[in-house]
Each structure stands twice: as C-alpha cells, then as structure tokens.
C-alpha cells in the first residue's frame, strides 16, 4: 500500500470514494473543476492510499490561517475509505499521516466536521484522540432550507 499526494489522474477515483461516502451521485463536472482547483492550491492537500494500482482511500484537507486561533489550522474536508477496506486500520493510518502532513505545513491543530448521523465515525475520531468541542451550524442558501438531517439527500 502506498500513501501519496493525489494527482489530477486520481480525480475519478476520489470522486467515486466521496460519492460512496455521501451515499449519492455528485455532479461530476462541478466536482472535477473543484478538484482541479484544489490540486493546484498549496492550501489543500489530498492524501490518497493506493493498493494494487487502485485508490482505496482519500483524505482531503485544507490549511488555513485562522484569526480566532492566531494559528494555521488543518481541516479535514473529506475522508473516505473503500467499503471493502474498512476496519483494517487504514483510516487510523491515514489520519496519522494527515496529522504529520498538517504539522509539516505549519499547522498547530487538525479539525474535522462530521454529520451527527455518522455515529461510527464519531467513535473513530474520539478513539484517535480527537475531541468534540464545537457545534457546526448550516443554512441552505439556494433551494429549500430543509431542517432534516439526512445522508445521501
């Protein structure tokens, strides 16, 4: 297994992993544009895990100087491992690798937002030493401002 920074050629594989994680098909043309922009931006880093020439894991993060911390902070934006490779320690290793990458990029902390419905994922982050100190609120700016919390909508 090889951990490496993602490339433009990984776009479809990362897309498939994130669609599986979100349990819905995202518009590929929009995804591809965002992915290409992030690959070329030093404030983003997408770590992938490759096994037998196939991307089986992706952890995408952003580095940002935040006023309320007066520090550079890493935020995990997306983190997905292929279904057949879960519960094998891959997520733990990917998170560990991402922490080192964040440190190497001058970050003093790593954060992640996680849907309230993902109870197993919450246990994973807590087991890996993360703390739930924040609430995150969101509001739809287009379409209906639906109050239900659903995965794969």
TrEMBL record:
Domain (N-acetyltransferase): give its ranges: 1-153
Q: Name one Pfam family in it.
A: Acetyltransf_1
The record's SUPFAM superfamilies line, in alphabetical order, gives: Acyl-CoA N-acyltransferases (Nat)
The GO terms this record gives for MF are: N-acetyltransferase activity
**Keyword match ATP-binding:** no
PROSITE patterns recorded: GNAT
Q: What keyword terms does UniProt attach to this protein?
A: Acyltransferase, Transferase
Per the record, the domain of life is: Bacteria
What name does this protein carry?
GCN5-related N-acetyltransferase
Q: In its keyword annotation, does this UniProt entry include Acyltransferase?
A: yes
């Amino acid at each position: 297994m090889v951990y490496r920074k993602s490339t433009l050629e990984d776009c479809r594989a990362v897309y498939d992993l994130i669609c599986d994680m979100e349990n819905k098909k995202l518009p590929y043309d929009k995804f591809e544009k965002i992915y290409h922009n992030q690959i070329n931006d030093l404030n983003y880093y997408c770590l992938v895990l490759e096994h037998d020439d196939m991307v089986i894991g992706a952890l995408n993060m952003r580095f940002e100087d935040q006023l309320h911390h007066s520090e550079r902070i890493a935020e995990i934006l997306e983190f997905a491992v292929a279904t057949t490779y879960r519960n094998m320690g891959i997520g733990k290793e990917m998170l560990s690798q991402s922490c080192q990458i964040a440190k190497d990029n001058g970050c003093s902390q790593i954060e992640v937002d996680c849907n309230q419905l993902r109870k197993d994922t919450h246990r994973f982050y807590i087991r890996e030493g993360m703390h739930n100190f924040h609430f995150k609120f969101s509001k739809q700016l287009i379409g209906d401002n639906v109050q239900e919390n659903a995965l794969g909508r």
